[in-house]
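ok trying this again, last paste got cut off
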Amino acid sequence: MVLLVNLLATLGIAAVFPARLRRIDDPCVRALSRVWLLAAVPGAIAVWMPRGPDAVAMTGLYAAAAIALAGCVPLRLARAKATTPHELTLIAALLIPLGAAAAQLADRANGDFGHLTAPELALAAALLHLGAATAAVRAAGNDALRNRSSTSTSTSTSKSTGRAASSPEPPRRLTPVAGAAQ
């Protein structure tokens, strides 16, 4: 079980999350994504180290990067026009690593965090790392779709009217409507 938890945390910290972080279309996030691995690799190594001051110091580097990433949230909110589901996903992707780093710091220090013991903190940190990676995957995917649709919408024209298309076609309903004939 410990092997699986450590493997999940390592993959979340040093592989999946940084790969998707680079794809998020935000100047602050883009700048941090260039140096993320410098802090993420010590954090990933600390997962495999025995609990103690060395592991805490290595996790501290990762926690500093997570704090810097969370610092992008106010800047993003100031630039955002509305709090859309996309924005909330992006904000989650930027804030969840801070919770993961806090849980990992408490775990590596062999301390308790509230009512959670060290093994529970290790599991919480691994799950939060995967949650951050998942949110980053979704946010990066949303940015890619948004950029692709804005490019195609601005350049496409309607064949019948010759005017620019107003918006992409809405998604089709995949589930049957209640009361509809089947």
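PB: full thing came through this time. Confidence is low (pLDDT under 50) at residues 154-165.
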